[in-house]
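Entry 14. Ran structure prediction on the chain below.
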Amino acid sequence: MDIQDGYPEDEIPADIQEWLDENGQRKTAQIIGPLRSLAWLEGLDELVQAIDHPAYVIEDEIEVIPFGTGLLWPLDRRVEEGTVPPTIWAKASGNNPPVISSPLVTTVPTAVPAAIKGKLETHSLRDLYPASRIKAPDHVKCVKIQFDKNLNRLEANIRKLVGDALESENLWFRGLTLTALESILAFFIPERSSQNAENEFGPGFYTADTLCYALEYARIGGAIMVFKDPDLLHTKLWEPDSQSWSAWVARWKHLPLEIARQPIPAEYGTADFMKGAISSRGQNVQAGRGVPAPSENVQLVACSYKGCKALSDSLDMIIFIERAQGGWLVREPFM
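Output, structure tokens:
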């Protein structure tokens, strides 16, 4: 379902309606639909067949595609869970298939640390994640909340739970899986996605200016890293104008446009941070045609070691989104 164009039928199915607000919208995303439909749109016939095949445990769940990502974005979580066949992952990502070390794989979803409760408290990151080494002192505020498909209701519940700590003006948010959170706390560097279209400002550590947008990236369970007042005074910030923004996004999305081949701006060479709109998913851009268009959401991207250090030093809070479902997952070897 393209949210801007509406559902092609008269009535929106109940399983999609659950993800929409009372106006039938989801303001941080444009496309919502079953994984099977997204795979079909991308021409991944193998994935469609795997979803239909009883030997696999790839559930045809409803997926929400945020602005600034591609239709293949949901595969990242499936790879993390170990439910996507290596050959399909390789075709989608353009990389070699990952090595399967065992013919029988048991996947346990990473759990929210037991010390995190349903009220805002300060914790030592090293107590929660012993490998953490990003801050000194390493104390941050933490809270846990149950996942809700209705994004507006989930955000409202979080704000009610957290209170004034989310009312500061200069806050930046990053949504991610719990596995990615543990990795980033150990070594605060960007986790480069194999999907170039998901890195529209180039390599960097991405944050968004709204909690609502970041919640899309927590999927059905994960965490929101909240950064407060990152040091932009002693670092170099590049804010591209509208023309430079279009050219820069076109370059990193590898769109077949003349503007994508413009010279690299001098400002990028020394930038520690980049700040600008997150692109929307217009139909022409989605099909590889047309100039990228900005959405209402803004991103701040740390694009140097100094920028990443400044951002990590500003980590103020972690909001844990508890999974709607959990448990053990056993699958047969992929053929």
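The chain is about 30% helix and 20% strand. Will compare against last week's run tomorrow.
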